[in-house]
Amino acid sequence: MSHKLKIAVWISAGALAGALTTVSLQTVARGSLAPLPLEELQQLAAVFGMVKSDYVEPVDEKKLISDAIAGMVASLDPHSQYFDKKSYKEFREGTSGRFVGVGIEISQEEGLVKVVSPIEGSPAYRAGLKPNDLITKIDDTVVRGLSLSDAVKRMRGEPNTKVTLTIFRKDENRTFPVTITREEIKTVSVKGKVVEPGYAWIRLSQFQERTVEDFVRKVEEVYKADPNLKGLVLDLRNDPGGLLDAAVAVSAAFLPENVTVVSTNGQLPESKFVYKASPEFYQRRSGSDPLRRLPASIKTVPLVVLVNEGSASASEIVAGALQDHKRAMILGSQTFGKGSVQTVRPLGPDTGLKLTTARYYTPSGKSIQARGIVPDVLVDESEEGNIFSMLRTREADLDKHLGSGQGPEAKDPLRERLREEARKRAEEESRKPVSERKTPEFGTPEKDFQLVQALNQLKGRPVLVSKTQIIENKAEKKEN
């Protein structure tokens, strides 16, 4: 089955769909540790010795130890991870919003890699790549059969190295090679525009180090284009998360100063913390607060937040804070439910440990973990309903996922029946010509059903509410 799954070239390979970790980058030393279990450690050493001496082929000692660490951490939950040299580098690139590559946003179509858009100013942009170009080969490797993540890996590399892409351009009916020199790319995680007089749309695709500055700049552009906004749509659909301080800052842009945005709770004293809408909780560097540049009306402009099953972690923090403080109306589908905190601790110059250290709670005290944010108004992704959303994995579906900490989970058996119906509909949809598939195009009212409903909400017009969506957690269902 073909999926037209949009992906940015810099996304780290192997990331769980919709579950990029919201992280706190810090080093914390625990003051006291329980005595080590000597018998189990002796057993570990014995196994290491047996593998080293008895295995059919010689094994690398360092790799054995590295794999043992990775296995120990991976057994905890889906988001804790040991970073070796390569994965640590990829992780840091992902959160910084910078990577080395050619600079294109891609999707997959009929087994080939399709250019959604080249990043403005990137090597691919300068080389003349266009939206809808199909990449058939990367250097000497045929693309058909490669996963998107494999294609991403092959296009990324070291600065000033070259990669040759073979392009098929449909409208010109020709195939040609393009040799591109890789360089550092700065991604833009914020898009926005005035969609019609008086109403604007701002989309956050991820929470990175540069997101707050990009967000402020985009809001300034929107207000310059239309100083008298009557309503704003904040689009967090398919935003997998990112950095906690960026989420706190975006929330603070719309909330009164010093109100609670999110709280955390875990074993360490440092993990028991309340983050407020104040610069001291989101500014990493000294200097002026970028939010001070925002127009004063951003605090009061009518606001709708769009979310879906792909909205996770940091985006759930923002949606939860704005919902609890009644600052915005939340529209869409129940979010992913990734409400745990990962702390990244360096283990050396080029390795690290990403460890789950706490749970997130909305200002009213609700746990986000394995529950997510339930919209105020449930709206399908299209007029025909949710074609693909029931097939998307949520936190509660992940093996070894952490519980909410607020009572047992309860799933509605109706979900499996709806999932089977969604599978059949998705298969039918995949057999249609590409031009006829009902794939939402975020930010284009003609092709974005949920955006139209958000605008209707802002204008006080009727909203087409979902008749089929279910709420995953019965406790949430009762409260809502």
- Over all CA atoms, what is the radius of gyration? 23 Å
Summarize model confidence as the mean pLDDT.
Answer: 84
Q: Give the second-level CATH assignment, the architecture of the domain at 190-406 and 441-459.
A: Alpha-Beta Complex
Distance between the termini: 36 Å
Unreliably modeled segments: 1-21, 25-31, 473-480
CATH homology superfamily name of the domain at 190-406 and 441-459: 2-enoyl-CoA Hydratase, Chain A, domain 1
So how many helices?
Answer: 11
What proportion strand? 15-25%
Helix content: 25-40%
What structural class is derived from the secondary structure elements? alpha+beta
Largest sheet: 7 strands, antiparallel
DSSP summary, beta strand count: 21
Instruction: Give the CATH class of the domain at 190-406 and 441-459.
Output: Alpha Beta
Shape: globular
| CATH fold-level topology of the domain at 190-406 and 441-459 | 2-enoyl-CoA Hydratase, Chain A, domain 1
Would you mind describing this structure in some detail?
- β5 and β6 (112-118) form a beta hairpin.
- The chain is of the alpha+beta class and 480 residues long.
- The longest helix has 17 residues, at 38-54.
- 38% of the residues are buried.
- The model is unreliable at 1-21, 25-31 and 473-480 (pLDDT under 50).
- Strands 1, 5, 6, 7, 8, 9 and 10 form a 7-stranded antiparallel beta sheet that branches. Strands 2, 3, 15, 16, 19 and 20 form a 6-stranded mixed beta sheet that branches. A 6-stranded mixed beta sheet has the order 12-13-14-17-18-21, with helices on both faces.
- α7 runs parallel beside α8 (314-324).
- The protein contains 11 helices and 21 strands.
- Among the domains are: 100-185, PDZ domain (Pdz3 Domain, Roll), CATH 2.30.42; 190-406 and 441-459, 2-enoyl-CoA Hydratase, Chain A, domain 1 (Alpha-Beta Complex).
- The two termini are 36 Å apart.
- 26% of the residues lie in helices and 22% in strands.
